[in-house]
Each structure stands twice: as structure tokens, then as C-alpha cells.
Amino acid sequence: MESEGGIEGxxxxxxxxxxxxxxxxxxxxxxxxxxxxIIAQMFDMTMYTGSAFSTLHVFAKETNFSNGHMQTTExxxxxISQFVDAAERYWKAGYDGVGINTSCNHYxxxxxxxxxxxxxxxxxxxxxxxxxxxxxxEIIEGIRSRCGRDFIVLILMSGVEExxxxxxxxxxxxxxxxxxxxxxxxxxxxASCLHIxxxxxxxxxxxxxxxxxxxxxxxxxxxxxxxxxGKHFGRMAGQYEGFGSLLEIAAAIKSxxxxxxxxxxxxxxxxxPELIENAIADGKIDFILMTxxxxxxxxxxxxxxxxxxDEIAPCTRCMTCLTAPYDMGMPLYCxxxxxxxxxxxxxxxxxxxxxxxGEKLNVMVIGGGPAGMEAARIAAQRGHSVTLYEKEDRLDxxxxxxxxxxxxxxxxxxxxxxxxxxxxxxxxxxxxxxVVDAGVVSEAKPDAVIVAVSGLYxxxxxxxxxxxIPASALADGxxxxxxxxxxxxxxxxxxxxxxxxxxxxxxxxxxxxADEIYRNGATWIRIQNKTWLEAKGVRFYNNAVVQxxxxxxxxxxxxxxxxxxxxxxxxxxxxxKSSNRALYEEISxxxxxxxxxxxxxxxxxxxxxxxxxxxxxRRVEREESGRAALSGEGEVYTASGLRHPRVPGAF
Length: 651
Prior knowledge:
By secondary structure, the protein is α/β, with parallel strands linked by helices. It has helices at 21-33, 73-93, 109-112, 129-147, 176-189, 229-232, 247-254, 273-281, 292-296, 300-305, 370-381, 397-406, 412-425, 438-444, 490-501, 523-535, 582-587, 606-618, and strands at 39-42, 97-101, 152-163, 193-201, 261-263, 287-288, 362-366, 385-390, 429-432, 448-451, 469-470, 482-486, 505-509, 539-541, 545-550, 553-557, 563-567, 570-573, 594-596.
């Protein structure tokens, strides 16, 4: 679509001219050959504008894709024509339908909501419901006149709006009653079905991932304030950690129309099959929409159909995937599925699924953390004979520790259970309680070794540091009131969230600048959790110099040049780990194929660990030195292990 200062063609194939139809014909055929219908979503990325000029609601936690302007009536009608033309091209290409995104604070939403449409005086003004809906209804009617009645026209619409940037200031937001009337208007215009989501002004992510409103506290807006989900959002459910949040809102809209209605927002059959099945059986909705479960496992639907729920790679709700609009331009990564956005790239030129190995090897994997288990899973899937060695008596204590720190919302245990189950299904031999050294490797005579041992805890050369406990050992704070955390990247901030939930007094000592706070945390988690910590009274001491750790607490030199002793019953070491190369170095001459992955290579996030392990094992049979794979020590790595500028949210 032609955009007035917005972003054109972002993450999409062009459909603005007839010459692009043949490319889309190939896509439609690909889906139809697999007996799958295809609907193209259409939207204009221009945000908070189009309908108004002076009243732009731009929030601290969101960026605007364009400068404010009010389109003339003629330009609005030209935009409508462009969308109708595009829909006709999709129809000619063989698509089954189109979806019009009228939510998400994009172009159409600015007309539907009085929150932004409060200045126009023409037929698209905010004065009446029909006027507000007109820009959408004229597109629906235009598509119907060109493409007939059988072509699907799905309308993605907000079932309710809430102003999270200024909680409670919602008198101009779309109410549930208004949404029901919009639904009736769209049905009369010829809409085939409705896709219900919400709009959360000031928090882009929460509109279609409402479960983030439960991080790190139920109802957290991202601004340090706490919403009452049942009051501020009308009928948003709050009892299922965000699963099925919009069911009652969708049900109310369905009662107002006769066309099918579905909803989005943590609608995940793997986790809540009865909730979804009952909602459909009770007539609350007709279908569900989901994205993240399919990003985590492209075979999700097939496995659901075959009732292989324990084989589904789970979405852990870590929010690694969504960076828009705050970190626009960053790749769309998935913690669980390393192939997302890497398939058919230099990292994974073959496909999403790894191909069978031409040469079958005996592969030794050392370390049963996320990187080790992923390496073993992929190696076995490719036909290699795999033995995994773990020095502890069970696999991945790291994920257990992280699960305790992060809580139940982020489903880390689901990820661990999936990996353990995959090792069973793929026939990986697991030797727990096995300490590996050069002698063990020499005796085993593997063709390839994947070293996935844990990283090394970093320390500070200051008096009293030997009394500090690692963040991984953090349990509850019973009987302890004051904590000081050393390290302000995501490790320290996640530990602080855990303690602040318990009402503890927490100080974070950051030896770097404020830019390091929540470094490498997922975009939206990083943004909103920092605000929550500040609202809970967690104090950050940036550019601090630690001088001593004693019985009374941690003595630092502040960036103001003052010596301050922070009271501490316990001091937590959350300084990022360093790579652990000792075993790798020890055995590198014993086998021609020795590779370092996970914390052994470059400690960072689970997403990084999983990705590098997956990539390395896809080509493990190649005669290439593991040493070459360790080039660039000291660089910051993306989840693929390649050099990348250090950008907040990149991991």
C-alpha cells in the first residue's frame, strides 16, 4: 500500500501491481497442494495518524512509524481503492481471501477509535459509528463487488480498547458495546468472519499477546501501574495466566452477529485444550487464531491432530519473537525453534527441518543443558548415533533453576520436558552422573564431540566476595529482608523480579552505565519489567565501583563520588558468566571434529544456546576444525553465533 510517511512493504511481498500476481500464484498453489486455504492479511503500518493531525497519542514505550498528518478525503478514498485493488490481485492469484487489520494502532484503527479520530469533519469523522467504520466498510463493499461472495473477507478488529499509557483515561477508547456495533456494521457490509483482539494504547505487544499483562505481576501495564483486568478491559479474563484472555469479549461479539467469530491471545491447544474445546462447544467462538505456537513448532497442528502433545516444541511465552515496534529491524528469533528466520539462510540453507546426514557418525555430547540437549536432538534426528554425558544425576538443572527464579508464567519446564522427551524418542543414550575428561573421550573414540558444559561464574576482586552466592542458587527469601544484586543485565534483573515479588528490599549494583540494565532480555520483557522494578522500589546504582562486601552490606563508590554501604543480608552474584573452554582445549586434539556450544562458547541466553547448537550439528560431519568455529572471541553474538552489533533486545 502507498503509505504517508510510514513503512512500505515491511516484511511482506509486494502486491501493488499486477506484475506481482505470478509470484503469489506460486504461494497459493503451495498451500492448496497441501489442502490448506490461504488468507493474506492487509494493513497500513502508518500508526496513530491518518484520521487526525494535532492529537497524537505517542507513548514513552512505543515509537511512531510516521509523522502526524490528517489525510484529505481524496487521499482516504485513494487508500481505500488501493486496498480493493490489492485484494483483487490476491483473488486473481488464487488466494482464498484477505484479512483487513483494523486494530493494532495502525491506519484503520485510527478511524474506528475516537481516541485518535476526534478532528475530522468529513464522512470519515468520529462523530458517528457509521462514519468511523466507513473506511473499512467501503473496502469490504469494494472487494465484494470485484471478487464475489465466496472470497473470504476477514476483519481483524479490537473487541475492547484500554489506555495503558495513562491507565483509566479511556473514555474515548472503543468499548465492548461499540465493538459489538462495529461487528454488526461489518457484517452488513459483507464481512465473512471476525478475528477479535484488543488494543492497548501505549503497549503494542499486549494487544495481541495479552498474557504479557501477567508479567511480572497480574495486570502490570508496563508503566509501573496495575490494571484490574476485569474492570479496565471489560470482560478480559485474568485467571489463566493470559490463556484465553479474550474469550468472553469474543463471545459477546459473537452474540451480536451471525458470521463466524474467532479470537487470538495465547489460544494454545497444547496447554489449554479443554478451555478452547469448551469455548467452541458452548458457542462462545467458532475458531481460534494462533501465531507463537506455530513459530515454535511448524508441525504443531499435525501433532495436535495426532494427539502427540508431548512432542510439540512448546512456546515458552518468553517474548523473544516480538521486537516491534521498539526494536524494529531486529530478526524474529524463537527461543525454542532455531530455524525461525534462519531456514534457507547461510546458517540453515537446507530447510527448517535438518536433513539426514550423508555420513553417520558417533557423536559425543558433553553437557545436559539446553545447548547439549538440542545438539543431541538434532544429531539423532539426522541419523547420527548420539551419547549425551551429564555430570549431574539429572538433565538440565540450569532450566530448573531458571524456572524457579522466573516463575510459572514463562514455561521453561515445558521446554525442558520437550527436550528430554525428544532424547527418548530419538534414541539418544544419556549417561547422567558421568564426569568427562580427556581419558573418557579417548576411550569412547567419538567421530565428533559437542562440548556444551556450563559457563564459569564471574567474580570481582574485592574483599568479601567469597561470601556472595550465585543467582542460580537463589531460592525464596524467608527470614531475609535486604538483598544486594551484583550485575544489572537480564540475569540480575530477573533475580530482582523474583525477590521483589516477595516484598524484599533489593538494590542492584551495576558497574556499567544505565544502558546495561536488562541487557539481552527479550524486548518487551526488558522494557516493562524495568519499570515494574522501579515502581517496586528496586534501586539501581549505575557506574558503581564495588569496594568491599562485609557483614553490614556492600560498600560502593557511587557515580556521584560518594561512598555508600548498601545493607545486605544476602549478596547475589548475577554478573554474566564467562565461557568455559578448559575441556574444549583439553580434548581438541583427540578428535578432528570438536565444537563448543552454549556457555562453553559464549554465555548468553537459552535462545542463543539452542540456536548455535542446532546450527553446528546440522553440519557436524563436515571436516572443519572446531577451532574455526571459535573465531571472534570477545565479540557479542547473535543467537546464530555470528558477530552482530550489540543492540538491546538482539537476543
